[in-house]
Amino acid sequence: MILDVFSRYVVGWMVAPRESAALAERLIAATCAIQGIEPDQLTLHADRGSSMRSKPVALLLADLGVVKTLKYCPAFPDRFGSLEDARAFGQVFFPWYNDAHHHSALGYLTPAMVHYGIADGVRAQRTIVLAAAYAAHPERFVRGVPQPAPLPTAVWINPPVIGRAVPEAAGTAHVTAADLRDHSLPIPIQLTEAVQ
């Protein structure tokens, strides 16, 4: 799985019988081509094998709410019966996660709304709806006019230590909303070919 860390959007994923450099290269190349990623534009963070069992990746996905979302998805099985079952699940799960799941860390927007730059418009519409609700029933809002939940302004893979002289140490990625402008893609890439 390739995840846009800022928007939590799954831009590419693959289910294969085993990990391999060749499969990873295909997934990365195809995802970059579809997303319009130019050379030297992308920072890719990955562990060094045994990806889903590694503590750094597991913690990152937990911090981003992906593991929890997958774990608490009612349709997620304890085990998949076959490789084809896992692929079929991914073909349903990832579109739901990207386009229908309203993520708490994204101000209850979907990853797609943030990834494709429509979050500000959605938040503006929510502001109008909330103001109308307040005008119609101010007694329901003891704290005044409600506001949409805020969007994150930055996402850190390795957050800096408060008071540290150099905030971006080696191995640290800092992604801001400005880094995500002008991305437009209708669907994420899904590579599901089996390699013999």
Give the biggest sheet: 3 strands, mixed
Helix content: 25-40%
Q: What is the strand arrangement across the widest sheet?
A: 1-2-5
Order of helices and strands: EEHHHHHHEEE
Number of strands: 5
Shape: globular
Written overview of the protein:
- It is a single chain.
- With 196 residues, the protein is an alpha+beta fold.
- 36% of the residues lie in helices and 9% in strands.
- A hairpin with a 4-residue loop joins strand 1 and strand 2.
- It starts with a strand and ends in a 5-residue tail after the last strand.
- The C terminus is likely disordered.
How does the SSE layout of this entry go?
Layout: E1 2-4, E2 9-14, H1 21-35, H2 55-63, H3 66-71, H4 83-99, H5 111-115, H6 119-136, E3 154-156, E4 174-176, E5 189-191
Parallel strand pairs: 2-5
Antiparallel strand pairs: 1-2, 3-4
Key features of this structure:
alpha+beta, two-stranded antiparallel sheet, 9% strand, 5 strands, 36% helix, 196 residues, single chain, disordered C terminus, three-stranded mixed beta sheet, 6 helices
